[in-house]
C-alpha cells in the first residue's frame, strides 16, 4: 500500500468513525485489511497442512483452487477466498469450514435474543439494524441449534439424592409433527432440595399421560441419582400417583386442592357456586383432618343428591387430598397446591405466549430450556423460614433427610 492509498484509507476511516459507520463492514475502510489478514492466515495454515500431509502420504497432497465464503462479525461482513486441497483434508483453525460467524459475542447475543422469545426474523432484523450484517434465518437456526447439546446435557445431569418437595404440572403447546400441528403437553418437575433452593429437575414432552409415561419419567429421575422424594404434589394426573409409589414407595403424595376445586366447580350450577364454595371451604380450610372429614360428610348430606359426581370425586381422592393435614401450617401452605410450579409456568408463558406452533419438540425444548436457565438464576435464596421447615421434615422423615448440621446447616 503506497502513501496515497494509506492517506485515502485514513480519511475514509476517520469519516466512517465520526459518522458512526462500521469500519469493517462491506464498505468499511478496514474491510480490505481484515480480508487480507484472514486470507494470509488461511494460506499459512494451508502451507503447514500440505507440509505435514506430504510427510504422511507417499503421493502427497496439492492445492486445488480456492473457494469463497462470507463471514459475519459484530463489525459487519467480509468476503474472503479460502484455499482448498485435492484431498479435502484441510481443516482451517482461524475460520473453520462451516463457520459463518466470527465473533463469539454475536453468537451469544443471538442465543440470548432467541431465549427472550424473539423469532428468527426478529433477530435477523435486529442484527441488520445494529451491525449492518445480513444473516439468513438458516444460519440463525444453526446457531440456536448449538444449544441442543446443552439441553440434552441438562436433561441428563445428575440430581441430588433427596428432594424435600416436588411439584409436577403441565403446560400445553402446539407442535408440528409429521406435517401436522398437534397439541402436546410439556410436563415440568420443580423440586426443593434440603437447602430450600428451587430447581427444575426436568421437562418431558408427551401427547398423552398415563402410568407408563410417568413410570418412564420417574425411572429416569432415579437413574440420574434421585433416591428419595419426601412429598410429591400433583394435579391428579392419571397414573402419576401409582408411578411415584412404584419407584418411591415411601413418598407422601398430595393432590392439588386448587385443581380439585376447579374441576368440582365445572359441574356446579353457576348460580349455586358461591354457596357451594362457602360449604366446601369448611372442608379444605379445616384445622384438623377430623374436622375436615366432618365437614365433608355435611357437604355430602347437603349437596350429594344434586351433585353426586362432585362429592364422589372428593370421597374417592380423599386420602391423597388430605395428606397436608398431617403437617404444620407453613408446610401445608407449600404442598396443598401446585402453585409453585404454576408460578414458574407463568414466567415461561411471558416468553412463549407470542409463539404459534413450534417446528418440533426440540424447538420447544430449546426455548423453554433457555427461559428456565434465566429464571433459575434468580433462585439464589432458600424459601422463607426454611430452617424451621426442614427441621420439621427431618423429624417426620427420620433417617431419610440428612441435614449434616456440622457443615451445611440450611440457613433461613
From TrEMBL:
GO biological process: DNA transposition
Keywords: DNA recombination, DNA-binding, Transposable element, Transposition
Job description of the protein: Required for the transposition of the insertion element.
Organism the protein comes from: Marinoscillum furvescens DSM 4134
Comp. bias regions, Basic and acidic residues: 46-56
Pfam family, one: Transposase_mut
UniProt key word DNA-binding: yes
Residue numbers spanned by region Disordered: 45-89
Molecular function GO terms recorded: DNA binding; transposase activity
Keyword DNA-binding in record: yes
Name under which the protein is recorded: Mutator family transposase
Family: Belongs to the transposase mutator family.
Amino acid at each position: 500500500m503506497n502513501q496515497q492509498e494509506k492517506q485515502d484509507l485514513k480519511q475514509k476511516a476517520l469519516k466512517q468513525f465520526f459518522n458512526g459507520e462500521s469500519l469493517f463492514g462491506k464498505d468499511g475502510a478496514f474491510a480490505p485489511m481484515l480480508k487480507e489478514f484472514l486470507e494470509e492466515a488461511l494460506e499459512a495454515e494451508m502451507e503447514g497442512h500440505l507440509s505435514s500431509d506430504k510427510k504422511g502420504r507417499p503421493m502427497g497432497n496439492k492445492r486445488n483452487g480456492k473457494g469463497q465464503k462470507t463471514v459475519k462479525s459484530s463489525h459487519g461482513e467480509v468476503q474472503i477466498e479460502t484455499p482448498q486441497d485435492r484431498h479435502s483434508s484441510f481443516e482451517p483453525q482461524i475460520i473453520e469450514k462451516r463457520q459463518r460467524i466470527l465473533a463469539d459475542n454475536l453468537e451469544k447475543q443471538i442465543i440470548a435474543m432467541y431465549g427472550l422469545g424473539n423469532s428468527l426474523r426478529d433477530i435477523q432484523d435486529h442484527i441488520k439494524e445494529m451491525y449492518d450484517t445480513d444473516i439468513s434465518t438458516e444460519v440463525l437456526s444453526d446457531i440456536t441449534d448449538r444449544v441442543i447439546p446443552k439441553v440434552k446435557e441438562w436433561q441428563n445431569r445428575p440430581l441430588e439424592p433427596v428432594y424435600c418437595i416436588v411439584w409436577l404440572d403441565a403446560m400445553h403447546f402446539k407442535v408440528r409433527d409429521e406435517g401436522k400441528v398437534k397439541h402436546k403437553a410439556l410436563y415440568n418437575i420443580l423440586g426443593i432440595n434440603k437447602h430450600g433452593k428451587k430447581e427444575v429437575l426436568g421437562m418431558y414432552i408427551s401427547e398423552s399421560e398415563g402410568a407408563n409415561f410417568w413410570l418412564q419419567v420417574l425411572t429416569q429421575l432415579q437413574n440420574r441419582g434421585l433416591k428419595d422424594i419426601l412429598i410429591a404434589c400433583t394435579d391428579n394426573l392419571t397414573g402419576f400417583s401409582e408411578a411415584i409409589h412404584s419407584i418411591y414407595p415411601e413418598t407422601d403424595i398430595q393432590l392439588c386442592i386448587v385443581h380439585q376445586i376447579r374441576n368440582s366447580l365445572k359441574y356446579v350450577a353457576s348460580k349455586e357456586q358461591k354457596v357451594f364454595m362457602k360449604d366446601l371451604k369448611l372442608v379444605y380450610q379445616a384445622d384438623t383432618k377430623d374436622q375436615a372429614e366432618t365437614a365433608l360428610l355435611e357437604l355430602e348430606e347437603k349437596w350429594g343428591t344434586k351433585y353426586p359426581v362432585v362429592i364422589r370425586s372428593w370421597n374417592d381422592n380423599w386420602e391423597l387430598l388430605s395428606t397436608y393435614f398431617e403437617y404444620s401450617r407453613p408446610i401445608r401452605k407449600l404442598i396443598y397446591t401446585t402453585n409453585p410450579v404454576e408460578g414458574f409456568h407463568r414466567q415461561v408463558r411471558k416468553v412463549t405466549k407470542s409463539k404459534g406452533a413450534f417446528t418440533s419438540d426440540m424447538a420447544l425444548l430449546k426455548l423453554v430450556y433457555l427461559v428456565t436457565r434465566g429464571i433459575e438464576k434468580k433462585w439464589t435464596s432458600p424459601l422463607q423460614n426454611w430452617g424451621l421447615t426442614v427441621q420439621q421434615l427431618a423429624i417426620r422423615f427420620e433417617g431419610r433427610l440428612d441435614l449434616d448440621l456440622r457443615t451445611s446447616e440450611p440457613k433461613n
